[in-house]
Amino acid sequence: MQILKLGGSVVTDKDQPFKPHTENIERLAREIAASAPQSLVIVHGGGSYGHPVAKKFSINEGYKSPDQILGFSKTHQAMIQLNHIIVDALLAAGVPAFSVSPSSFIVTEKKRITTLDLSIVIKLLDSGMVPVLYGDAVLDSHQRFAILSGDQLIVKLAKYLDAKRVILGSDVDGVYTADPKLVETAELLRVLPISDVTGKVKIGEALSTDVTGGMLGKIMEVSEAAKAGVDVILLNACEPGRVQAALRGEKVIGTTLTR
Ligand code: ADP
To answer: Which end of the chain is more exposed for a tag (fewer CB within 10 A), N or C?
Structure first.
């Protein structure tokens, strides 16, 4: 059982609203097909689809005004559009992809998952299909609605589906000592003990300066899966061949989280 997360930075052009990264999507679909995975769930991020709409209507802050109700639907719809493109590409490559909306089986409370019914996802896997999920606009029992990140979702999936490996594909080679897009001298950490993250021993300072970057939050989230014994690998999904190699269990450039 493997879980592959494709970041919004991989499947969309984050600088242009509603712009899919078609080249990456089609190449990754071929890589996934070529790796012939036994049991796989794919989760993708929102990138330039979900995020601009969610931001416009302040969906993650919960209900404050009636116009947000239309915004909630529009955020979900934006994600369905992106999901449609990704599932189409997977089907064209011969992967038996099957779209599942997280908002139809998950409820959060103060943005954290409290209700989760994986019975359909499990049945799809048992039938040989590849469920394709995404970060979604979800109902929240405290604030009416919220944004569920793909990163929070994959940790729950890893735990309840007893995953062996979680692969997080982003647009950088892995976790660096600082944001590699801002700091030229940043070094790639091939292995990252989660105690270094939570205890802020070695890289805490470098990472915590990057609060606007998405990497620290991502690691804090997925370190839960590493703690539970799941292999967690962060890699560059924009570089051809890396996702395919990781899905095959081969050694690949990236960062492995260790306990
Ligand atoms: P995705 O959309 O792929 O899920 P994000 O864009 O949210 O990912 O986060 C990845 C980004 O985090 C990278 O493009 C990078 O600019 C930034 N980042 C910040 N700090 C770091 C770090 N220490 N190591 C690697 N990337 C970092």
So the answer is: C
